[in-house]
What we know:
By secondary structure, this protein is of the alpha+beta class. It folds into two domains: 3-197, Ribosomal Protein S5, domain 2; 207-352, Alpha-Beta Plaits, CATH 3.30.70.890. Helix content is 34%, strand content 23%. It has helices spanning 87-97, 126-144, 150-164, 223-228, 236-256, 259-278, 289-305, 328-339, and strands at 17-31, 36-37, 41-42, 46-64, 73-78, 81-82, 107-115, 176-179, 193-195, 208-212, 310-313, 319-323, 348-352, 358-360. The strands form three sheets. Strands 1, 4, 5, 6, 7, 8, 9 and 14 form an eight-stranded mixed beta sheet that branches. It has a four-stranded antiparallel beta sheet with strand order 11-12-10-13. Strand 11 and strand 12 (319-323) form a beta hairpin. Helix 5 (236-256) packs antiparallel against helix 6 (259-278). The structure holds (3R)-3-hydroxy-3-methyl-5-(phosphonooxy)pentanoic acid. (3R)-3-hydroxy-3-methyl-5-(phosphonooxy)pentanoic acid binds at residues 29, 32-34, 46, 124, 126, 165-167, 223, 227, 273, 314-315. (3R)-3-hydroxy-3-methyl-5-(phosphonooxy)pentanoic acid (PMV) is lined by residues 29, 32-34, 46, 124, 126, 165-167, 223, 227, 273, 314-315.
Amino acid sequence: MTEKEFIPSPYTKSVLSGKTTYKSPSNIALVKYWGKKENQIPANPSISFTLNECATVTTVTYERLNEPSNSFFFDVALDGKVEGSFKPKINTFFERVYQYLPFLKEYQFKIETSNSFPHSSGIASSASGMSALALCLMEIERNLNPEMTQDYFNQKASFLARLGSGSAARSIKGSLVQWGVHAKIEGSSNLYGVEYPHKVHSVFQNYCDTILLVDKGQKQVSSTVGHDLMHGHPFAEQRFHQAHENLLKLETVFAEGDLNGFISIVESEALTLHAMMMTSQPYFILMKPNTLEIINKIWAFREDSKTHVCFTLDAGANVHVLYPEDEKTQVQQFIKDELAAYCQNGQFIHDFVGNGAQKIN
Ligand code: PMV
């Protein structure tokens, strides 16, 4: 598919008003996306587990305007309260996607959204939020063009979500989603995420992710700024090459259920992401002292317990603790006894790998 194929043919149906709701999950990258080209094209391919519990529910109510407008008409509410601060981001998103969704200037919208995780938890809500909104907009488009296929619907939802926030492209489907072209992964695209097409061993089914809320404050450096600092970064090319290599190595790891191989790639990816931040110009550190305390505790516990617990990080101080389902009892006890103390107010969220977004009736 090319960008042009996401420009719709003239709508065949006319709809006066309606309402649509989607629940869309967050995701956690195993091979990280860090660095992008124009129009949210990733500098390297990435792969993530789709989560199940950390999700955004968005309802879009729409009503046709008497005549098409020159600007976008919408209101946004978070947890039932009008949230003016979200408007500029959504307006920018609407501008970016308008050519692919021309009905955006023909309706007025009410966007109501809520997250299953605490708003200020430091968990990125952009992946779940942008994918939920993209899915609602696609549902409206499906009402206007009912003949579209489910594959087209999913691809375009991911394509639109990507234009809102890159990693959101990976939140439409589950359980492993790849985004970004890789020579050995057929169907992979820079424009949208695809379900990982190769064999995945059953040990990765229901894989667990406990998110330790180490720091719930606002990040000092946004992802947008961080991605941008990969332009002219001294190690950028080497890093992009490494991401391709790691995806290749993961193919065998997934097929064979090689948990030690998995741990070594996933932890290295997390630390490399943060190493890129520490070696940008200007440089910055998003980890906190407790992030490092937790990493050391995980390493010590893994050694002692012979379990396969490991960690990954996103662009922040929180730690994602990953482990297979059959080690859940032991690892969750360890989290409660030894890691919770390093979390803000002792807070953590148990999550696991999910199947992607759902329409809510
Ligand atoms: O989607 P963005 O632009 O917020 O970037 C997210 C980047 C990471 O979370 C750090 C890595 C990833 O692949 O999700």
